[in-house]
Amino acid sequence: MQSLPRAIIAFGSLALLAACGRLVPESTPDPIDITSARLAGVKSGPAVSSFGLGMNDAEAGLRSFIESCPALLRREDRTGLTRPSDWQPACDAAPAATGSATNFFQTYFETARIGSGEAFATGYFEPEIRGCRTRKPGCEVPVYALPDDLIRKWPDSTPEADRTGRPPLGRIDDNGDFVQYYDRTAIEEGALEGRGLEIAYAADPVEMFFLQIQGSGRLQLDDGSVMRIGYAGQNGRGYTGIGGVMRERGLLGEGPGQYAGSMQGIMQYIRENPEDGKELMRLNKSWIFFRELTGDGPLGSIGVPVRRESSVAVDPRFVPYGAPVWLDLDRDVADGLWIAQDTGGAIKGANRFDTFWGAGEDARIIAGGMSGRGTAYILLPKGTVKRLNSK
């Protein structure tokens, strides 16, 4: 889903990962002020053959790796670990490796530990909610396309010396001034109505709120068809995880009168307390705009579909986009080979991962309970670690 400045939900248990946002763990094994894999330190790991990579896992990883090769061969690697040419031999060989994927990964890759190698992983999924293409009673929550007045611009008051990085998002108001874009409250109260931006409507505002946090999802339309929507942009307003607010207010926990610290618990509170729930949701001023997707899966940060149990979101400063990743966690369901194809606003630092679990109720359950710690190895083209450490 270009790099996505979106917040994909990670409903786990640590620090209320079900709090609607990918959160950095309360304690991270690697210093968070280190800004690249090279600075974190790169050490050789065990041989790929020692992992016991199964055929099904390898074949799924191979398919995702093949889809990632165009990005590997054209993008600058922000980690400082590889050059596009390093990946050429593996990408050339990959299409012919179907049926022998395990041998392919053993032949072309070595493993590297970035920093401590101590991994923390959460999970995300593609939600499915009820919707319709045209507004009707019981289906009235607008799904907006990206508005054309949402622009990036430096405010006139910003000194030239401070104009570094990307300009902020905003709009030009009626006085010709650059101001912040409409926040969640303003949009819900009709700031964008009448402009023809609605690509669909959702039936449930609470479900739509959570789908926005995921950044993509499926609308089960009233005619029996399915419409897949994906991230198109964001209003530039700050993101607030409402689960963290609820915990601060003593609403979540295991005590009497408290709600479970999970997505289900948060949604239960909002439904049982609609006015307070609306106020909570509006604390998250961020709003996600969508576009209809016609491919076979939601798109990750490198523009290819993310795949169940194969795609993982990473911090691209520490893991090259498209690189295979091996996870060995205390949550066995997430053990195995993943391909780095996505990112997220709170996936920050070395060895921080968010595993993708597809769509459906089982995906919701697995992603909702995913909060795993263990070890991570990045698979790099053979010879990379020696070259890096000889400099």
From TrEMBL:
Q: Which residues form the Lytic transglycosylase MltA domain?
A: 128-291
- Source organism, top-level taxon: Bacteria
> Where does the UniProt annotation place the signal sequence?
1-18
Catalytic activity, EC: 4.2.2.n1
| TM regions (residue ranges) | none
Q: Name one GO molecular function term.
A: hydrolase activity, hydrolyzing O-glycosyl compounds
Annotated Gene Ontology cellular components are: outer membrane
Name one process (GO BP) from the record. peptidoglycan turnover
Which InterPro entries does this UniProt record tie to the protein?
Answer: 3D_dom, MltA, MltA_B, RlpA-like_sf
Lyase in keyword set: yes
Name-wise, this protein is peptidoglycan lytic exotransglycosylase
Q: Which organism is it from?
A: Pontixanthobacter aestiaquae
Lineage at the top is: Bacteria, Pseudomonadati, Pseudomonadota, Alphaproteobacteria, Sphingomonadales
